[in-house]
Design a protein that fits this description.
The chain is α+β, with helices and mostly antiparallel strands. The protein has 3 domains: 91 residues, no CATH class; 85 residues, no CATH class; 100 residues, no CATH class. It has 9 helices and 12 strands. It is elongated and about 85 Å long.
């Protein structure tokens, strides 16, 4: 696994209610947006204040589909006009303020109507213009994700920009649905085994090696193999267990750690039945 792309959404047009940095990891040679092979994404969510600092610890995800199909690159809110005094303007809004026509549909809506001021009623913005009131609805569609990720303002006076995409809800909907899943705990466990400091950023040194190791386990021995091994290694050994049982668990953990280290080093010249035997012991 190698770093294929990295950025901060703050550097691009977006409607998130908080910024985040992101890194995509995958195999060399493909288009990371459309590659259907297994890829991974690391994210650091901004926690407020100056966007140049104050980011949370990274979360890591295994992506199930091509990234372009998940909705991960869909960062803007579109607008649909329900009604207004000028049918021509209603049609213009519905054509030009949908996602994809302009990079910032909300700003273009403001340009068309000449004001950001509105009255929010049941999730719709009622915009009073010289010609009359336009009722416009914020919309969002990305991958299999819909308007449920929108953070809608309470009823009352406000502005068009009061609506946003709730970043945490969006991340969960995009990166933890379908075949995708969060793998942060597995990443941290493997980092500990391999003597790598827990990542402080989504592109910290050693993340590529950790993800390559996780990928090797899951690719060769079946989905969730790395997760199962990590969960076993995280289990504490109760002092109430009989001594012989504790010794058996400790020996299993020693074998698992050794296996992780060998896979990370690219050494797969061992009995391919070994992993099945160890997984049987875990079970």
């Amino acid at each position: 696994m190698k770093e294929l792309a990295r950025d901060n959404v703050y550097n691009n047009e977006n409607d998130f209610n908080s910024a985040f940095t992101w890194t995509v990891y995958g195999e060399d040679g493909g288009d990371w947006l459309w590659d259907n092979g297994e890829q991974y994404i690391g994210v650091c969510l901004h926690r407020g204040g100056d966007v140049r600092g104050n980011y949370g610890v990274p979360e890591f995800y295994r992506v199930g589909d091509a990234i372009a199909d998940t909705g991960f690159i869909d960062w803007s809110i579109g607008w649909y006009c329900e009604s207004g005094p000028d049918e021509g303007m209603v049609e213009k809004i519905n054509e030009e303020c949908s996602v994809g026509y302009y990079s910032n549909p909300g700003h273009h809506l403001y340009e068309l109507l000449g004001t950001e001021d509105c009255e929010w009623i049941n999730g719709a913005a009622n915009v009073e213009t010289e010609d009359g009131t336009y009722v416009v609805h914020p919309t969002y569609y990305g991958g299999d994700v819909g308007p449920e990720v929108l953070d809608l303002p309470s009823d009352g006076s406000g502005y068009l920009c009061d609506v946003s995409i709730d970043t945490e809800t969006w991340l969960e909907a995009v990166l933890e649905s379908g075949d995708a899943e969060k793998i942060t705990e597995t990443v941290c466990t493997f980092a500990d085994v391999l003597g790598i400091e827990n990542p402080e950023w989504d592109n910290s040194e050693g993340v590529d090696k950790i993800l390559q190791t996780i990928h090797a386990f899951d690719n060769h021995y079946g989905s969730d193999t790395a997760k199962t091994i990590a969960e076993e290694l995280e289990l504490s050994i109760s002092p109430e267990l009989p001594e012989i049982v504790r010794r058996e668990i400790e020996e299993l953990h020693r074998k698992l750690v050794g296996l992780i280290e060998r896979v990370a080093a690219g050494n797969d010249e061992y009995d391919t039945d070994e992993i099945e035997e160890l997984m049987d012991q875990i079970g």
